[in-house]
Amino acid sequence: MRYLPASSARPLLIYLLLLAGIGSVRADFQSPHGPIAFDCKVCHTTDQWTKIKVDSGFAHDSMTEFPLVGRHKAAACISCHATLVFAEAGGQCASCHTDVHRGQFTTDCSQCHTPHQWNDDAKFRQAHQTTRFPLVGVHATLDCQSCHGTGQYVNLTADCIGCHSEQFAATTEPNHPTAGFSTNCTECHDVTSARWANPKFAHPASFPLAGGHALNNCQACHAQGFANTSAACVSCHESDYTTAQNPSHEAGAFPPTCEQCHSTINWRPATFANHHQTAFPLTGAHVLTDCAQCHVGGQYTGTTTACLGCHEADYTGAQNPTHEAGAFAGTCENCHVTDGWRPATFTVHDLTAFALTGAHVTTDCAQCHVGGQYTGTPTECWSCHEQDYVGVTDPNHVAGEFPHNCVTCHSTDNWTEATLDHNQTAFPLTGAHVATDCAQCHIGGQYTGTPTDCWSCHAADFTEAEGHVQNGYPHDCASCHTTAQWEGATFDHDNSSFPLTGAHIQTTCTQCHSSGIYDGLPTDCWSCHQNDYEGVQDHVANSFPHDCAVCHSTAGWEGASFDHNNSDFPLTGAHVQANCSECHSGGIYNGLPTDCWSCHEADYTGADDHVENNFPHDCAICHNTATWDDATFNHNNSDFPLTGAHIQANCSECHSGGIYNGLPTDCWSCHEADYTGADDHVENNFPHDCAICHNTATWDDATFNHNNSDFPLTGAHVQANCNECHSGGIYDGLPSDCWSCHQEDYNDADDHVSENYPHDCALCHNTTDWDEDAFNHGTTDFPLTGAHVGVACLNCHVGGQFENTPTDCWFCHQIDFNGASPDHNAGYPQECLDCHTTSNWNSTFNHDQQHFPIYSGRHDNAWNQCNECHTTNGNFGTFSCIDCHEHSDQNDVDDEHEDEDVNGYTYTPTSCYACHPDGNEGPNLRRTNSKTVKPGATEVQK
């Protein structure tokens, strides 16, 4: 055995005994090391006590709770174990390391420090990323003392102004305090940038800097400061407005919305190209009319849009016909159009209250509009045809009081051949009425107020007919007669409220209709058969009901029979042969009870045990009508069907004391003694629901199916010992989440704590194999595709933030957006997917194929900036064809289209596209009927 010299063995001795114990020391000696649990011979020898074994077998890592790693391996034992009682040395960092942070942090130094390197800069910065102020940009390169020079690490502000207030106050270009700039530095400065200088200020979308506004001199607009600067043009261009003379803006009361005529690209010349957006779009001859003709005296506001406002002289001077004498409406557009004032045509008579049809179409206007009167002309026929009405004699309209509604018989196609469709009146003609002469019904030429009931014309037929008056027949002739034939009258009793059946069919009418009464007779049997009822034995005495049909029928009155099965108590079993008087004692047939007890009370009280055991009165539970004596009880029809061992159990085992009602049905009520006598049931607080483990077939072979619980077992859980989860015999109220059992696995796993992984272990682990963790990003709101598949998690989940990470491209690609060419800040949308894909960041946008050729054809190299055509700042969905090169001169464009005889042409920002969707002219267009139409395009009409 080798020994170390005492001088070098002493530190080793202290090291080895750090967490060891000597349990075998004799009770009458006191160990200087305190209570340690292994033999002194582990470290000492009997040859020399102060010599320590080099190969003693003591391992600090495996035999103590404090493995030595990093710099702890080389530390002298005494640096941690100041006394010989090694257990007095604490296992926390704070036990040896003085807290220089003055209690600002927890005592868990491992959050920032490691045993390998106490001042680990990378560890410090990694920890900082989990705070509310992650280090990005220039902040990531700063020394900690730059911000924490005073030793203060918590409760520092995260706002820029907290550290940069001096720079804010000292800045003069521009002067931040004077301008009232926000102290939120990130509005202009980029925290991700490596430099503070060269800030970028994104002018708000409400006022983008474009065209003439794209100045580098902010003071040109913000001479009075930067706050509350008006976005209205007139706030800067008021002098331009007041000095404008052609036309005079002030005299014309022009609105101060300069953008209606001016643009940011070029203030002059101004064009008012959107007259079509006003209340008076220009069409026809109005397009070429000089503005001053309508806007007299430079007045541009309040100009009337009614034709009469400009054409009053035309109206008053018109003679054929004279508009004033005819009181023509001032709506000139009824007859005139803007393409040509003359000749006027009135083609809208059909849109008036009197559309022209038939002979009216060719009638001269003056025949109806007498004296040139065109307003207030009546539209009813009578107004023009009164003389026709008065002069007619066949039939005489006046004498017959014909209505003045001529269209009832006349039409505009032919006045003289009048016809009346009687079927459209309240009395359609059928049968013999069709051939009857009008005068037979319309006596004396009376056509109005003629009654429609049969009696009015056929009263004489009624009084002359045999028996009608004497028998009081009703005046409703249609009951027996028809218009097809009056004489062959028949009455179908089946259509009445009392159809005839059986013996009633052969009965003479007078037997029921005595005294000739046919109306209001009753239809119940009793009314005719009261004498039969009273003359029959027992009917009155036994108070039989008056509903004779219960026993009698119309087929045969004498053979009466009563079907008990149609009553509330059908007869079955022994009841069928029972004599009626056994139940209907005293001749009572109405209101008798139908329950068994009412007749069998004596049987109940005379039976064994019924009264003593309080049997229910519902006899049908055990008895039946077939045989009363052989009573049986089917327990399966109760609330507790018998299964398993319960079937053979004696009734008294459960129904002790003869109690059959109100007994509980739960297992515990009978098996409480079994529960308390079973191993562990009381100690482990097993639930009282015995059926979870036991069944009625056999009580002893209890089994528990975990899959019926709130936590079905799968994977490795199936083989786990119950005590691993149910420690302490606790089976109720245990949590079912993974974290509750696997917290130690979580803490020991790489990066889980430092990167703040969520506690939902099932996101990556499964019960089959804990170590094979795999996270399926495809099940989240952001499936990974293309280049995203290979990106490191922390590139997107900065600072270990895995929840609520935005899914829009802009969140990660803002720097790409700001640095893109062309300049995306010129109003490009922030929806990157419009042009980019995850497979290839390079843009897939093709202006030529998707919209309009600008990199080929006539527009190739004809433009420099997008806003030359997309003149609405920040809106690429709109465009203008008339603000560039040869299109900006309307006169030239108008002349060119006039020379080419182009029909449907208008000079508006977007109208060119209808005929020139590819920007070409000449050979690519075709001429049809003096109209230029692009092949395959839709013709543009005015």
Mean pLDDT: 81
Please count the helical segments: 26
Annotation, overall tally of beta strands = 2
Structural class, judged by helices and strands? mainly alpha
* Rg: 56 Å
The N- to C-terminal Cα distance equals: 116 Å
Secondary-structure element pattern, one letter each: HHHHHHHHHHHHHHHHHHHHHHHHHHEE
Helical proportion, percent range: 10-25%
What is the makeup of the main sheet? 2 strands, antiparallel
Structure description:
The chain is 20% helix and 1% strand. By secondary structure, it is an all-alpha fold. Among the domains are: 1-118, no CATH class; 809-933, no CATH class. It has a two-stranded antiparallel ribbon. The protein is flat and about 160 Å long. The model is unreliable at 1-28 and 926-942 (pLDDT under 50).
